[in-house]
């Protein structure tokens, strides 16, 4: 399918959210087969903020490389973002979620949206100061439904004062979203972190289960069709 991990992570999230929202509109009917009935409203809109690292050299850099003049490794955050429409729909083929995600991300990559949002934020910071730049970013983010990210973690085991780290599960607070979904890799593991306001997202544990079940269905479809 010529997809990336980011394509798959986004596809899994779209599939999981579709299952979760479909269950909500179906009255949380847990009867066998009830989830297969399409209860989704027409023309549902859900947009996410997707954070993207636009550094020339991604990952953790050595301090010596950062200190080097005119080196590729730079100080500070180089993070742009794109406004990503999520497809909330029932699909007969689970792989259609991944195909939709790939098409959307490829279109966003060609648009250079992440570079433009980073450049505009940097320009606003230099011209008008941190308060105006923060207000601009907050206003844009507050007009989206959720936040989504997929972060690449260390490929080798790391530790803290001699204590090996079992997994990474990052999150944040203060964002104007009732839902944030983070995918974080660490060695050969992938952790899914769901941060939710239970007043808006009832039973977030069910959402986690739906995302995991969507991963299982997509994996099964890949194996069945011999695409692995």
Can you tag this structure with a few keywords?
five-stranded mixed β-sheet, alpha/beta, two-stranded antiparallel sheet, 228 residues, 6 helices, Chloramphenicol Acetyltransferase
Q: What's the topology here?
A:
Blueprint: H1 5-25, E1 47-53, H2 63-67, E2 79-85, H3 95-111, H4 113-128, H5 130-141, E3 146-151, E4 159-160, E5 163-164, E6 179-186, E7 189-196, H6 204-224
Parallel strand pairs: 1-3, 3-6
Antiparallel strand pairs: 1-2, 4-5, 6-7
Helix pairs in contact: 1-3, 1-6, 4-5
Offer a concise description of the structure.
The protein is α/β, with parallel strands linked by helices and 228 residues long. 40% of the residues lie in helices and 18% in strands. The protein has one domain: Chloramphenicol Acetyltransferase (2-Layer Sandwich), CATH 3.30.559.
CATH class: Alpha Beta
Number of domains: 1
For the biggest β-sheet, the strand order reads 2-1-3-6-7
CATH architecture: 2-Layer Sandwich
What does the overall shape look like? globular
Q: Note poorly predicted spans.
A: none
The CATH topology turns out to be Chloramphenicol Acetyltransferase
Helix/strand-derived category reads alpha/beta
Largest sheet properties: 5 strands, mixed
State the total count of DSSP E strands: 7
Oligomer: single chain
Whole-Å distance between the termini?
9 Å
Strand content: 15-25%
Mean pLDDT: 84
Count of individual helical segments: 6
Radius of gyration over alpha carbons?
Answer: 19 Å
SSE ordering:
HEHEHHHEEEEEH
Question: What percent of residues adopt helix (DSSP H or I)?
Answer: 40-55%
